[in-house]
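Figure S7 source data.
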Amino acid sequence: MTAPVNPPPRLLMGPGPVNADPRVLRALSTPLIGQYDPVMTGYMNETMALYREVFATTNEATLLVDGTSRAGIEAALVSLVRPGQRVLVPVFGRFGHLLAEIALRAQAEVHTIEVPWGQVFTAAAVEEAIVRVRPHLLAMVQGDTSTTMNQPLDELGAICQKHGVLLYTDATASLGGNPFEMDAWGIDAATAGLQKCLSGPSGSAPISLSDAAVEVIRGRRRIEAGLREESDEDAGEPVHSNYFDLGMVLDYWGPRRLNHHTEATSMLYAARECARIILDEGRQAVIDRHERAGRAMLAGVRGLGLTVFGGVAHKMNNVVAVEIPDGVNGDAARGAMLQDFGIEIGTSFGPLHGRVWRIGTMGANARLDTVLVTLAALEQVLRRAGARVPAGGGVDAAYASWAA
Ligand SMILES: Cc1ncc(COP(=O)(O)O)c(C=O)c1O
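C-alpha cells for the predicted pyridoxal-5'-phosphate complex:
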C-alpha cells in the first residue's frame, strides 16, 4: 500500500498556485449533496452573486466553468468565436500566446501584435491594430505571470465599443490582487482561476459575460436531444465543443437548470468560499494588501542588491521577476529554498528561463511575515551560492516599505 498523501509543509511564494486559505480547505471537505438539491442550487445562485461583486459587474451571466483557468479561457473563446472570425491577440508574454493558440484551435483567423516581454501595450497601439485587422473579438491577458506585467485595460472597452469589437480578458493571475472593473471598463467576457490572488486550489474558473457576449452565445444555442422540448429550436452554427458550450452551461446555471455536466460540488464550495473571503475583507482592502505586500517584496529584493525584470510601473502587485545574479545557478538556488527552507519560488518560461525567478505575494500569502521569511531565506541561499548580498538588506528594506 502507498501511504496517504501527506505533503511536507511548504510556503508557496511562486507565481501560483499559492497556499489555500484554511477556510477554503475546510469548505472543500464539506459533505456532498445532489446537484439539484435546492440547497445546492441555492449555493450556485449565491456563488453567481458573490462573483458579480468580485468582478465588479451586474452581469447576470456570472458563473463557474469546471476546470482550471485554461478551461475558462477555452470556454470563452470557443463559444464567442465562430470558425473563420477574426480574433486579435496582443501578446506581451506566454499567456498571450496561449490565447492565440486556443483561438486558433477554435478555428478563428488569429492576428497577433507583440511587444517585448517586460512591456505592455498602449491603448493607441491596440486601437491601431483593431482598425487594421477589424476583429470580431479582442482577446487580451490582464496580468501575465510569465513577465509579471499588468496590461492597463481601462481604455480598451470604449475603443472596442467604438469599433464594434467584443473584449475578452484573461484575469487569472490578476483578479483579486489588482484593480479590475468589468462594467466600468466595458469588458464583455472575463475569466479567472482560484489559485492566485483568490487563495484557493486550481480547478474552478469563474467567468462573467456581458449581455452582448451572451447574445453572441445565444445565437449558437443548442439543446441536447433527450433534454429538448418541442418549442426548443437550435440557432446558428453550434459551438464546436460540448463541455465548453457556454450556452449549455448557462442553461444549466439558469432557471431551466437543463442538465449538462455534474457540477463539481467540492470546487464550487471552494470557489464560493474564496469569494466570501475577499468580500469579508473588502475588495479594495484585498487589492491594497496585495499592493503593500508586493511593494515590500520589490523593495526587499532590491535591498538584497538584485535587479528586477521588466517595466516596474506596470508590474502586477502580486508577483515580481528577479534577475538571477551572475555566477548563481538559478535552479540550484530554488532547490535550496525548497529543501532547506520549505519555500517555493518560481522558475520562468521561454526567453526568461534561466534568467529570472518569479516571486509571488498573493492571496492568503500577501502578508508581511511571508515576505520577510522569503527574503531572509533568499539572502542565506544567495550567500551560500557565493553571491555578495548586503546582510539583512532585504528584510530591512521590506520592513521600511511596509511601514511606509
Ligand atoms: C495569466 C494566466 N492565464 C492562464 C493560466 C492557466 O491557468 P491554469 O493552469 O489554471 O489552467 C495561468 C496560469 O499560471 C496564468 O497565469
